[in-house]
Design goal:
Order of helices and strands: EHEEEHHEHEEHHEEEEHEEHHHE
InterPro entries: NTP_transf_8_dom (IPR058575)
Oligomer: single chain
Protein name: Nucleotidyltransferase-like domain-containing protein
Pfam family, one: NTP_transf_8
Number of domains: 2
């Protein structure tokens, strides 16, 4: 792996700060997503506040000086919020061009679009990126770039925290489920099979919805709407679910920031090493698992001293914690790349 140059680091930090302002502007603009309007019922005008794109909402009362002031305040607030968001978006576009020129862009476009859609829907905290795509977060946090051969992947695994209320997530998805959100990122996404956990787009990039195994008393399928993906229960994921998380900003292929939440890098490295020892794991994946685990472990030791492998990671099974010697050697960190 190669360390970022000082110039690349500067623009990575600038991007993170600018994106934080952008997300704040998004939050301020979100209450104005749906409009406020006059609605005539039986020849009487009422001020009506829309709550979704289907026209559902509630009445705020008959037309009066008070409701007219409400509409005026809403209209002014909406214009202010939208103008601030527009200005920051333009600044992000300029920063993205610089990022691309400096070769900071790494996250595949389709992955970035999906993660930004989750963030804009208010679901960033509910999903953790696991598997190969998580390595882009470790790159950003460690100001380094892994070898591209370790990053190539035709899918992204989204680990949903089923301890959260599914009804709340469904409401944030506007009743269209996770598949509806994926279609916002790429309209060609479709479920691979009915009641399956996987969606694929026309380019055959796949998104998998996975959860940690559920207790018997909570065995109801996890899905967000009719005809939506149904989460697959995967053994071992409870360790990743319960582990501390790294929440950071990575950069996509076009230079735009991407919010990404992943497991603690030590947990990722140990889990990958553990996967490489399983007799049930496909042989073609085992060598790659170990290489990815070693690469992340080397980055942690070299550039992320706040993550000490010596600390006890209580969320991990004892067999996983024993994988540390397997990560001890084999990867070096190169000096800074060109600015």
């Amino acid at each position: 792996m190669k360390l970022l140059s000082n110039q690349q680091r500067l623009h990575l930090v600038n991007t993170e700060q600018l994106f934080d302002n952008y997300r704040n502007a998004q939050r301020q603009a979100r209450p104005y997503t749906y409009g406020m309007r006059w609605k005539t019922v039986r020849k009487t005008e009422y001020l009506f506040r829309d709550k979704d794109r289907h026209g559902n909402g509630k009445s705020l009362g008959r037309r009066s000086p008070e409701t007219e002031k409400l509409l005026e305040a809403f209209t002014q607030g909406r214009a202010t919020a939208q103008d601030r968001l527009r200005q920051i978006t333009e600044q992000l576009g300029e920063q993205a061009r610089l990022n691309k020129a400096l070769r900071l862009g790494r996250v595949p476009r389709i992955v970035a679009r999906v993660l930004r859609e989750l963030d804009e829907a208010g679901l960033h905290a509910d999903f953790t990126v696991i598997g190969t795509q998580a390595m882009y977060a470790y790159e950003s946090a460690g100001a380094s770039h892994f070898l591209l051969e370790l990053l190539a992947s035709g899918d992204v695994d989204l680990l949903y925290d089923a301890r959260h209320k599914i009804t709340l997530a469904s409401e944030k998805l506007d009743g269209n489920g996770l598949l509806g959100l994926l279609k916002k990122a790429d309209k060609t996404f479709e479920c691979v099979r009915q009641d399956g956990y996987r969606a694929a787009n026309a380019g055959q990039f796949m998104v998998d919805l996975v959860i940690a195994p559920l207790a018997m008393q909570h065995a109801k399928p996890v899905t967000f709407s009719a005809s939506d993906l149904v989460a697959a229960q995967v053994p071992g994921l409870q360790w990743l679910l319960n582990a501390p998380k790294l929440d950071t900003v990575a950069i996509d292929e076009d230079g735009w920031p991407v919010p990404i939440k992943v497991p603690d890098p030590r947990v990722f490295a140990l889990h990958k090493a553990w996967l490489s020892t399983l007799t049930t794991r496909e042989p073609v994946k085992k060598r790659r698992d170990l290489a990815q685990g070693k690469a992340v472990a080397a980055l942690v030791r070299a550039e992320m001293p706040q993550y000490a492998f010596e600390e006890t990671l209580t969320s991990l099974h004892g067999d996983v914690r024993k994988m540390l010697p397997l990560l001890a050697a084999g990867v070096t960190v190169a000096q800074q790349g060109p600015s």
